[in-house]
Amino acid sequence: MPNAIMIRDYGASDALKLEELELAELGPDEIRLRQTAVGVNYHDVYVRSGLYNTLALPGIPGCEAAGVVESVGADVTGLKPGDRVGYVTGTYGAYASHRNLAAHLAVHVPDGVSDETVASNLLRAMTVEMLTGQVVHQIKPGMTVLVHAAAGGVGRMLCQALSSMGAIVIGTVGSPQKADIALANGCAHVVLYREVDFTIAVEKITGGSGVDVVYDSVGADTFSGSIEALAMCGHLVNFGQSSGPVDPLEMATLAAKSLTVSRPILFHYLRDPEQYQAMASKVMQDFQSGALKAATPTPIPLHNASRAHEILESMTGGGSLVLIP
Fold first, then answer.
1. How far apart are the first and last CA of the chain?
2. Are residues 207 and 299 in the same domain?
3. Residue among 5, 62, 44, 38 at smallest CA distance from 115
4. Are the C-beta atoms of residues 198 and 174 closer than 8 Å to each other?
5. Mean pLDDT of the chain
6. In what helix (H) or strand (E) does residue 133 lie, and over which residues does it extend?
7. Which residues form the Enoyl reductase (ER) domain (predicted)?
8. How many Å is the maximal CA-CA distance in the chain?
9. In a domain, 132, yes or no
10. Is the pLDDT assigned to residue 52 strictly greater than 60?
11. Global pTM?
């Protein structure tokens, strides 16, 4: 019998409960997927807690997974039973052993790329593609950029991408072990933010000029410092809030240095199926070629999804988690 993690009430990690799942009849534009690996993201924590209030209850959380096509709807082309596919979706439902999925979301997994890598890193890699390839802010060789949480799942791939584009990357991390990870993934400089005020460190590294761009997924704890670390006419990309939501920002704060701020949401960039497929196919190729090197995922049984959330919220993970049905 298929099963899934269900949320019936927003709350702590124990709100995640394994239940039997009865699948609806397959629609003409859908595929039936036997999932082999399911990604875990901080977005899922926001959904479970009710902070985002984007999952109607009762509901199944989860935005990405990989698996094997079991059957296809009458109008589906380009997919067949036995195909390995991955997907990202803003309508949730990934924390499950099986599911019906809109066929246009399925992306072929290339040879040499594991289901676990795709399930735990596709959304992250597409976030990096959004941040660097969809003109959130144009990166030019020689720019100096600051990446918070540089050893995290998104952070390390973002540093790889920025470095390959010729940027000088400064990364903030919480421990010497994570500093080694950041340096191995494209950072030219690493700041241990628990030991050093990162704004002071950036000032020293840049000779007082500040950085051209800050990529901030941390939110409340770092936002004001990120503004301070920017150079004149600099740009702040806030794409997450792992430490909590950001306080309202006064325009006068930006005007002081002619700064700009963007708050991109990946799923807004994925509304167009053609753009979704293009972005997903590119990162699949980057995984296959090694242009993007994803963290080796840590497997956790699907029924123990609450443990995965506890690891994320403790901020001790620094890599990838994958649920195995």
1. 12
2. no
3. 38
4. no
5. 95
6. helix 115-133
7. 11-323
8. 63
9. no
10. yes
11. 0.89
pLDDT attached to residue 316: 56
pLDDT tens, residue by residue, 149-207: 999 889 999 999 999 999 999 999 999 999 999 999 999 999 999 999 999 999 999 99
CA distance 110 to 275: 19
pLDDT in tens, 270-303: 999 999 999 999 999 999 999 999 888 999 999 9
Q: Rounded to whole angstroms, how far apart are CA atoms 142 and 105?
A: 37
What CATH number should be reported for the domain holding residue 100? Answer: 3.90.180.10
Counting the structural domains of the chain, the total is 2
Q: Are residues 295 and 258 in the same domain?
A: no
238 and 160 in one domain? Answer: yes
pLDDT tens-digit readout, 87-127: 999 999 999 999 999 999 999 999 999 999 999 999 999 99
| CATH number for the domain harbouring residue 164 | 3.40.50.720
Contact by Cβ (8 Å): 1, 301: no
Domain match, 64 and 142 both = no
What range does the domain containing 47 cover? 3-123+267-324
**74 pLDDT tier (thresholds 50, 70, 90):** very high
| Residue 249 shares a structural domain with residue 296 | no
> How far, in Å, CA of 133 to CA of 35, rounded?
29
Same domain assignment for residues 148 and 230: yes
Q: Which amino acid is at 231?
A: A
**Alpha-carbon distance 244 to 33, whole Å?**
35
Where do the H-state alpha helices sit in the chain? Answer: 42-49, 115-133, 153-164, 176-184, 198-205, 223-229, 251-255, 266-269, 273-289, 305-314
Radius of gyration of the chain (CA): 20
Q: How far is CA 246 from CA 56, 173, 219, in A?
A: 25, 20, 6
Quick one: pLDDT at residue 9? 97
Q: Outline where DSSP puts E strands in 89-138.
A: 98-102, 107-108
pLDDT at 315: 66
**82, two tokens:** 């036995």
- Do residues 115 and 107 touch, judged by C-beta distance below 8 A? no
